[in-house]
Here is the input.
Amino acid sequence: MIITRLIVKNWRNFQQIDVPLRERQFIVGPNASGKSNLLDIFRFLRDIVKVNGGGFQKAVKERGGVSKIRCLSARNDPDIAIEVHIGNTADASAIWRYEIGFSQEPRGHHYTYLKHERVWKENELILERPDKDDTDDPDRLTQTALEQSALNIRFREICKFFRQVNYLHLVPQFIQYANMIQGKVIEDDPFGQGLLERIASMHPSTRRSRLKKIEHALKIALPQFDKLEFIRDKTTGHPHLQTHYSHWDLKKGGHREDQFSDGTLRLIGLLWNLFENDSVVLLEEPELSLNIGIVSKLAPSISRIQRSQKSQVLISTQSDVLLIEEGIDGKEVLLLTPTKKGTSVQVSSDIDDIRILLKNGFTVGEVVLSQTRPNHIGGLILPE
Ligand SMILES: Nc1ncnc2c1ncn2[C@@H]1O[C@H](COP(=O)(O)OP(=O)(O)O)[C@@H](O)[C@H]1O
Ligand SMILES: [Mg+2]
Here is the structure.
């Protein structure tokens, strides 16, 4: 399943968001336009349902409380609200809809409390709060039904879906030295430290088929790349990845992960994560750590994996190189534009200037970032 639509009110620097989402969605905007804040909306939903130490109160507190989350330019309607639609594909109609709205007690303990919580399955409203129990006992509004297994039976599927939201900020050194560090892996493993162990714990035939698909996707970015294998060190028993490049003498053996380039490792980690999730993978500005050749091939590598995997990938970026691939549709790019009333979020192909340029054969990478740098757009000349 994927999130097919996001509607938000008063979340950080967004007064209002209402956008459809695709399987592969790029979130583009200048520094401090709110890319990380936007991705954080999905992490917030995950934090509510996290198995170890989740919960609504904690998720709000970890973000500094309602006063930090609420948009500074919020007007007369100051509640914070999030609504997501969830469906099997971007084009199919939504199966689920989850809505949450919250605020803070003006006095006393300043608890965060729910203003509303609703769940729709297809077109049936199956949860609506506040309900009678909430009216009788307002303390109940400090917890979502989403986080309580006694109350979420009829929409457990949404809880599981949110729980799997995966935020990835791979640190290659953690993978390279995982066997040596042997440290505690942080919950959800955002840095990729547990990658080799996770690969090792797969059923061998599933592992082989995944590595094969990753191998294909890697070849798009690294044409001389030949083979990716899983091996165990005969002496230590530690798991390793091994690569071969087509221009190498095979007899000399391959490279192990501690010899891979950072970019190769990040790409392997990212692609493996896509396989592990049939939910949402959040990827923060991957261009910051990848070389330009790999960045330009990231988008097609992701779609290659997505052919066999139903996950959704939301990628924040400032890089035109990442968007240069011809296959990227204008709908796959959300454009963040800071304004006095907060940042606006638009589907790039809904913007007239951009749509015209895309129709005339420019790629998203050529036109979208020039939109965020206004002086440049005049430089693009339309064919007669
Ligand atoms: N509650 C809020 N109201 C308005 N703006 C906020 C709020 N919280 C954070 N911001 C602003 O959001 C911006 C940071 O957004 P961020 O998501 O980190 O941007 P990016 O990832 O695009 O660089 C900062 O300018 C910060 O002042
Ligand atoms: Mg950021």
Notes: The two ends are 43 Å apart (CA to CA). Residues 375-379 have pLDDT under 50 and may be disordered.
